[in-house]
């Protein structure tokens, strides 16, 4: 199994820290997580995660954390969303998605996602 890309790891890390704090044990899971499968959907991506059994579950937590990030692409692809799913205390899935059914870019995230920012952006309405 392959590792998460640097951008995927950074996105998940930022989301976990924002939700649970910098001391969360989910960061230990993230350090050990591997990609079980990566699937493009046309308007997004699913990155199924596998955490080795040597890492303990965290209090059987079930949660979904979401964030929106800016890109270098033109509207409607100038923003993309991510959801990190935690199931039964384990990191389970990182989902990336576009808005307005825009096509998910074929290029690696590092080529078009503004990952230099520390925090995700607030979703603009209107």
Structure explained in plain terms:
The protein is an alpha+beta fold and 126 residues long. The protein has one domain (6-111). 17% of the residues lie in helices and 32% in strands. The protein has helices at residues 6-20, 26-32; strands at residues 34-40, 44-50, 63-70, 79-87, 90-98. The protein has a five-stranded antiparallel β-sheet, with helices on one face.
Summarize the structure.
The chain is 17% helix and 32% strand. It has 126 residues and is an alpha+beta fold.
Average pLDDT score: 89
Number of domains: 1
User: What is the alpha-carbon Rg in Å?
Assistant: 14 Å
Order of helices and strands: HHEEEEE
Helix content percent band: 10-25%
The profile of the biggest β sheet is: 5 strands, antiparallel
Q: How much strand?
A: 25-35%
Features:
126 residues; alpha+beta
Q: Secondary-structure blueprint of this entry?
A:
Layout: H1 6-20, H2 26-32, E1 34-40, E2 44-50, E3 63-70, E4 79-87, E5 90-98
Antiparallel strand pairs: 1-2, 2-5, 3-4, 4-5
Helix pairs in contact: 1-2
């Amino acid at each position: 199994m392959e590792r998460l890309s640097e951008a995927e790891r950074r996105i998940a890390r930022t989301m976990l820290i924002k939700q649970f704090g910098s001391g969360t044990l989910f960061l230990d899971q993230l350090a050990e997580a591997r990609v079980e499968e990566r699937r493009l959907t046309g308007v997004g991506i699913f990155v199924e995660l596998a955490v080795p059994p040597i890492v303990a579950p965290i209090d059987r937590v079930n949660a979904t954390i979401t964030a929106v990030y800016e890109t270098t692409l033109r509207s409607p692809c100038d923003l993309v969303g991510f959801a990190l799913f935690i199931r039964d205390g384990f990191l389970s899935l990182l989902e990336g998605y576009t808005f307005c059914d825009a096509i998910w870019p074929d290029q690696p995230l590092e080529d078009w996602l503004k990952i230099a920012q520390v925090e995700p952006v607030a979703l603009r309405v209107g």
